[in-house]
Design brief:
The protein has 339 residues and is of the alpha/beta class. The strands form four sheets. Strands 3-2-1-4-5-6-11 form a seven-stranded parallel β-sheet, sandwiched between helices. Strands 7-10 form a two-stranded parallel sheet. A two-stranded parallel sheet has the order 8-13. Helix 5 runs parallel beside helix 6. It starts with a strand and ends with a helix. Bound molecules: nicotinamide-adenine-dinucleotide and 2'deoxy-thymidine-5'-diphospho-alpha-D-glucose. The site of nicotinamide-adenine-dinucleotide has 30 residues, from helix 1, helix 5 and strand 5. 2'deoxy-thymidine-5'-diphospho-alpha-D-glucose binds next to helix 7 and strand 8.
Amino acid sequence: MKIIVTGGAGFIGSNFIFHIMKKYPDYGVVCLDKLTYAGNLSTLEAVLNKPNFRFVKEDICDRTAVYKLFEEEKPDVIVNFAAESHVDRSILEPEVFLKTNIIGTATLMDACLKYGIRRFHQVSTDEVYGDLPLDRPDLLFTEETPLHTSSPYSSSKASADLLVLAYHRTYGLPVSISRCSNNYGPYHFPEKLIPLMIANALNDKPLPVYGKGENVRDWLYVEDHCKAIDLIIHKGREGEVYNIGGHNEMKNIDIVKMICRELKKPESLITYVADRKGHDMRYAIDPTKIHKELGWLPETKFAEGIKKTIEWYLENRKWWQTIISGEYKNYYEKMYGNK
Ligand code: NAD
Ligand code: DAU
């Protein structure tokens, strides 16, 4: 079996590559990644020299490069993680989100049609469903919840989902889609809530909480997400959407306080800053379908996962310190400088 993993030098893609290469040592894995600001080749150090692994630095929007790779590798399965993934950046500059997340996905699917594959899997997000109110804990996102997006990021992901389903219906492309809630764990880029708060707390810097910190996210340890995708590409039905989430809703402020406690840092570091524009209030996934059809259940409890994650950031300071001392500094100043 040969799998092309796009965006494999990013957070979830790299964790997925590690999972697949450990569980299926006879599979060939090709990582196609443009190495944008979010991609980091050093993340893949442990697998770079393995004979059944190949890294290719290309853009998923580059049709010639993508077709050449498909011709060379003749993959069976494509798992598309490649995306611009940060909501705040999409609010500052939407265009690249449309290009990578929509055109890039279509380009990959065109290659799948031209060369033939067994499965194209699109890694999507719960953000395509928009948000839920805080005072209706009974409401959860199911696969039937209408798409109702808030940010340029989520709109670009929803557009890609619609295209994926259209390629299935129109051309019969064997596709599947997963819509997962917020992930956390090793190699999470320090622009996102959990790693940003860990890095800032360790540097005794302010912890910028948007609005009142009451927004709720449904957190899942990254390994559990990878296991769910593994199940979908091997046993999931073609043309289907699967929600992935672990019933772990938490307010942002509670997460930030928990990080302060774990790192023995004072809560006085918490600074309430201007809210995100169009900020989604609450996400909550109903994972009944993937549980019933594929037997998936999350394995890592949040209390354990957050400890493991903090431990990882303590033990891998070089990885994130290199990031926050480079080009990322300009983004941080632009984003938080006058908040
Ligand atoms: P990330 O930003 O950490 O990584 C994205 C990767 O894609 C990077 O390695 C980057 O270099 C690469 N990339 C970007 N544009 C590219 C292009 N044009 N061509 C080739 N490679 C390109 O993202 P992540 O958090 O790992 O998310 C991966 C996927 O999972 C995304 O599609 C995202 O929408 C989805 N998702 C993320 C979460 C989450 O909590 N992080 C939850 C649900 C779904
Ligand atoms: O739900 C899945 C989505 O989760 C993925 O599709 C996205 O790719 C991923 O980035 C993530 O989106 P969020 O916007 O939920 O994640 P983020 O870490 O940016 O923010 C989480 C919450 O924390 C959100 O309510 C905004 C808030 N926040 C974030 C940052 C970066 C803060 O209060 N302060 C911050 O500095």
